[in-house]
Amino acid sequence: MACYLLVPRDDEPVLVYSMGGSHLEATRREVWIADVRNSRMGRYGEVLAEVIREKGLEKATIGHPPIDPRYGDYMPVNQLRALEDGLPDANVVLLPEFFHELLVIKSEEEMECVRKAGSLCVDALEAMVERARPGVAEWELKAAAASAILAGHGDVDFLILGATSTHDPQMIFGNPRPSDRRLREGDVIVNELAAGYRGYTAQIGLPIFVGEPAPSAAEFFDTVALPGYLHMAEQVRAEKRLSDVHRAGRFFREHGYQSRPILLHGIDLTSAEPHVFVDEFHDDEIRPGQVLMLEPNPINPEGSLGFFIGQTFIIHEDRTENVTDRPLERIVTG
Q1: Any idea what DSSP says for residue 319?
Q2: Strand, helix or coil at 7?
Q3: Which of 105, 114, 272, 276 is the most buried (most CB within 10 A)?
Q4: How many CB atoms neighbour CB 74 within 10 A?
């Protein structure tokens, strides 16, 4: 579920890593932490208690932030019990999430990682465009995207995609586990792709048409999905506010279309605050140094077809940098 990093106030940190052997040694070489220990097959609580006693901190207060900041989950109960049993005089305190505030505003070094992740997203999308032909299975598109990311020394964060006919559409968003369905002439591939580099991620999405789409789908993309996205993208800059993005997101309803709830989210390492939804938004400020993913997903009035369009932006004082920059156009393969 997680590895654990002990950070004493006045001493060097200790990483308790899940695996031993070559896994441990590879990690030891890569990280800046000198003291990397084996979890002994997942006995994290015991190992942490031993390290804390070594450092003479057995009566200290130990703060523990969430393992999963999105849903607020902490360490498993067996690890907590082992830690408390091994340190009966210590005070273990569950802390609110605070790492987001350390990560939300990027340094220049962090921005370089985000830029690399963005370029890998574009590589993944282009690999899918190159592969998308009648007869190709959905999972083969995922394989092409993953291969492009790995070939660029990146990591796959997620690859969500699915295909449906534009003449008889039955998809508003992709599938995290693509099927064996084979592409056919007149299909559209709906996708959202995310790549990582050194832990930092970026995301992209743009429909891919296999041959000419049905006229209704072409009109939907050309007159609603793409113009609506571009209208919103104009608001993603430092002198604007999230309320401006939220207001621009009304474009789809004003043109008689529906929308998936989410319109924009932040990225610290992965998806994070702030969020802008169709009916609400949080944190009204757009700050230089933030990374924002604009990702509206308009849906036709019948509720049978959706077009996800998304790009990742770094916010600067005087400009907005698109790290997933590739032409926004109707992509037709075959």
Answers
A1: -
A2: coil
A3: 276
A4: 15
Of 205, 183, 180, nearest to 125 by C-alpha is: 205
Tally the domains of the chain: 2
For residue 201, the enclosing domain spans 103-333
Sequential DSSP letters for 22-47: HHHHHHHHHSS-SEEEE-TTT-HHHH
**Element spanning 272, H or E:** strand 271-277
Which alpha helices (DSSP H) does 215-334 contain, by range?
215-220, 226-233, 242-248, 251-254
Question: Is the pLDDT assigned to residue 6 strictly greater than 80?
Answer: yes
The verdict on 83 and 116 lying in the same domain is no
- Distance of alpha carbon 166 from alpha carbon 172, whole angstroms: 11
Among 97, 118, 140, the domain-final residue is 97
Q: What's the rounded mean pLDDT across residues 48-52?
A: 97
Question: Is the pTM here over 0.85, yes or no?
Answer: yes
Both 142 and 192 in a single domain? yes
Average of per-residue pLDDT values in the chain: 96
For 148-181, what is each residue's pLDDT tens digit? Answer: 999 999 999 999 999 999 999 999 999 999 999 9
Domain edge (last residue) among 97, 113, 128:
97
pLDDT at 30: 84
Q: What CA–CA distances, in Å, run from 79 to 3, 20, 60? A: 11, 18, 18
Domain shared by 153 and 75, yes or no:
no
